[in-house]
Write a structure and sequence with these properties.
Blueprint: E1 10-13, H1 18-29, E2 33-38, H2 44-55, E3 60-65, H3 75-78, E4 83-86, H4 98-119, E5 125-129, H5 165-182, E6 188-194, E7 196-198, H6 210-219, E8 231-236, H7 237-249, E9 255-259, E10 262-265, H8 266-271, H9 274-277, H10 290-300, H11 306-312, H12 322-327, H13 335-348
Helix pairs in contact: 1-7, 4-5, 6-13
């Protein structure tokens, strides 16, 4: 069993990201020294939300310039660390060149971070942010498994460069991580496999995540004629940060962990906002028929292909999260709280 020395610094890659921000907050609140690896530490507007959190917590933060695609760029940030969180990876569905924009940064970025781990003798444990996308591509796949649900034993075999390339990037990156872990015996790997991440943004400037655009579409009228029954899982970003922290610091944590609170769909997500925001915003009040989404979906979002629509709309998505509850002691907040808090941040920042 691996125990982590709390007095040693902890590295977080992609520290200005949506998920990483909440993880950094958790580490700072727990009194850790965070080595925050970011692309450009001199861009103060990118890190000011983290500086503010650090100023109000017992922990401290130090920034290091690093780039996913530059070999060795994490060596300095990793010095003296026993624990490394690798969260940095692009999450966009609409890309021009999936190989260059998704696959290479995800796989080569993981390889570069773990090459640094191999060069850093103090590192004992690495937590990699993978995804449920490394387990499945489309909701219709759930039906083929026992109880109609995905588990940690399953790997994605259906994603390609042309269909669900984001899922392919997460699958290849996680496989690369396990391959590198098996090639040595000094450090251990734990992976976190979240479903669709929702919840409030700590950094209102970080609005490139796909999560952000879905909440925005719920409130800007995109779905006012109805939201699709597009089967997905949802996890609150704050619960996800807690799961990362436990995966890093619980001695008994090992292997992959599905981190997902709700088996749901876009219509149910939108409906959960109606009691609080329904009078003031054009939220979806009914289900959009599949044929309509099939016609207009690709115009609303280029990442939404007809094949994706047919394999996800009207199909139940279901994941088994029992390992996270038993091994990491996780409990999850209600969907309504996650959705309301996500929406409120967009209202407060005048984005909706």
């Amino acid at each position: 069993m691996t125990t982590i020395d709390k007095t040693k610094p902890v590295l977080v890659t992609g520290a200005t990201g949506y998920v990483a921000g909440w993880l950094v907050k958790k580490l700072l609140d727990e009194g850790y020294t965070v080595h925050a690896a970011v692309r450009n530490p001199d861009k103060k507007e990118k890190v000011q939300h983290l500086d503010k959190i650090a100023s109000e917590s017992p922990g401290s933060i130090k920034y290091f310039k690093s780039d996913l695609l530059v070999d060795g760029s994490y060596d300095e940030a990793m010095k003296d660390c026993e624990l490394v969180f690798h969260t940095a990876s692009p999450f966009v569905l609409d890309v021009k060149n999936p190989q260059k924009d998704l696959i290479e940064p995800a796989v080569n970025g993981t390889k570069n971070v773990l090459d640094s781990v191999n060069r850093t003798p103090t590192v004992k444990r690495v937590v990699v942010t993978s995804s449920c996308a490394a387990i499945y591509s489309d909701a219709d796949e759930c039906a083929q498994y026992p109880n109609g649900e995905i588990t940690e034993e399953i790997w994605n075999t259906t994603a390609t460069l042309d269909h669900q390339p984001y899922s392919l990037s997460k699958t290849l990156a996680e496989k690369k991580a396990w391959e590198m872990e098996k090639a040595q015996d000094r450090w251990e790997l734990v992976t976190i496999n979240p479903s669709f991440v929702m919840g409030p943004f700590l950094n209102p400037n970080a609005t490139t995540s796909e999560s952000f655009s879905i909440v925005k579409q719920m409130g800007d009228g995109t779905f006012k004629m109805g939201a699709p029954r597009m089967g997905i899982g949802v996890i609150d970003v704050r619960d996800l940060a807690e799961a990362h922290f436990r995966a890093g610091t619980y001695p008994e944590a090992k292997g992959r962990h599905i981190i997902s609170a709700h088996n749901t769909d876009f219509y149910e997500m939108g409906s959960s906002l109606l009691p609080k925001f329904g009078d003031d915003y054009p939220l979806p009040k009914k289900v959009a028929p599949k044929w309509l989404i099939w016609l207009i979906g690709p115009m609303i979002n280029k990442g939404m292909t007809r094949k994706m629509i047919s394999k996800n709309i009207g199909h139940k998505w279901k994941a088994n999260n029992s390992k996270s509850i038993q091994e990491l002691g996780m409990s999850y907040r209600p969907l309504k709280e996650t959705m309301e808090d996500s929406f409120q941040v967009l209202v407060d920042n005048k984005i909706i």
